[in-house]
Hints:
It is a single chain. The longest helix has 28 residues, at 41-68. The protein has nine helices and no strands. Helix 2 (18-33) runs antiparallel to helix 5 and helix 6 packs across helix 9. By secondary structure, the chain is mostly helical. The chain folds into two domains: 2-128; 147-240, no CATH class. The chain is 60% helix and 0% strand. The site of heme C (HEC) has 22 residues, from helix 8.
Amino acid sequence: MLSMLPPALGNAHLLLLHLPIGLMVAAVLLEIWTWRDAAARPLVEKLLAVNAVAALLTAGAGLVLAAQGDYPEEALNWHRWAGVACALVATLAWWLRARKGLTAGRVGLVALVVATVLAGHLGSVLTHGPGLFSRSAWTSDPGAGDAAWAGVGEVHAVIAKHCVECHGPTKQKGRLRLDTVAAAVRGGRAGAALVPGEAEAGELWRRITLPRAHRDAMPPGEREGVSSAERAELVAWINGLGR
Ligand code: HEC
């Protein structure tokens, strides 16, 4: 159902989400300011009202994007429900401030900060992966003394060139990411894509060595296949993994 709506509506989430974050920060700063200048208090309430609307719109667009995008399911669910909760907390924070007085309003504001940080964090895990700050990304430097990273520079180039467009941070076709070694080993719908030490055992290898016309061949369609020199690099690297 939601996936039938225009993609622009889902993509709006990525733009809108900055609004409630900015408004939340503004409301907190202004609230601190009101400790010295009580005249600014009504403004906090207005900010929270605008924030509630922005959060509800963001969550709505997010639900559309979730139905349209190809995101890993578990990470998506966490962010989806944190986002919906965040929109509800934003509405509650405004209501507490407007109807229940200053103390209740401050409690609401704290809850809003927690909900926004949590939903934002889970959202970043969704788009960047948990490996964002770890070294286990294809894009990171091979760790010194880490045998698993031997030759990863060239391997990274092969995967980045042929695969990451559809199996990376933005799209996860077949629920598979190939932008980190850990994600490749974890695999996708069909299980592990990489079996360390056994190049020919993994689904990744099967797919890149299929006849180009085969429907399972990767990369699919008219795209240029992985050359035999590139395959040789992959084999040597996968066979060296875990040794
Ligand atoms: C144009 C987009 C696209 C590109 C580029 C692409 N893939 Fe895929 N891949 C898909 C789609 C769509 C699926 C899911 C359908 C299927 O299983 O065939 C998939 C599925 C897979 C799977 C099975 C995942 C699972 O567990 O079901 C593997 C393994 C895979 N791709 C490996 C690769 C490798 C390796 C490359 C680079 C050499 C690559 N893909 C490039 C679109 C792409």
